[in-house]
Amino acid sequence: MSVSGYIGRLLDVSNKKSLASFLGSWEFGKMLLDGNLAHNILFRGPSGNLVGTDYHGNKYYENNTHTYARRRWVVFADKFDYNITSVPPEWHGWLNYINDYNPTQHKFKQPIYQIEAYVTRTGTPKAYNPKGSWFNPQKRNWKKYEEWTPEQKA
């Protein structure tokens, strides 16, 4: 693919109309700092075969001409604020060569206790806050003990 093709693809992905508007955006700075984003969008994405998409919108690619352990990769749905916890367990196994079963063509046996995978809530208002946390709305009673007072007989 030519340089103009890469630039066109980059503008397409970032929803920018011109190269000047992209160069002045925060996405450009993020792409420079995060080599993974630039590498996946510009180089790996066009060269691989789309294997499937998960329920979070992440796309999974494979290219068997690359070296082993670099043949499979994910392009996250949210390209500028992605989180690795958005990869479901079945795709995690496929990405890391734990199994070779394509999750779009293979039905895995579900344990009875399994719940649907979700993106971690850490750092968000929905994060878990234990009893003593500053952010927990129900404040903890910090008394170590309470004195025992015997009942008074009337």
UniProtKB/TrEMBL annotation:
Keywords: Electron transport, Membrane, Mitochondrion, Mitochondrion inner membrane, Respiratory chain, Transport
InterPro entries in the cross-refs: NDUFA12
Cellular compartment(s): Mitochondrion inner membrane
Membrane topology: Peripheral membrane protein
Any Pfam family matching the protein: NDUFA12
GO BP term, example: response to oxidative stress
GO CC annotation: mitochondrial inner membrane; respiratory chain complex I
Membership in a protein family: Belongs to the complex I NDUFA12 subunit family.
Name of the protein in question: NADH dehydrogenase [ubiquinone] 1 alpha subcomplex subunit 12
Organism: Volvox reticuliferus
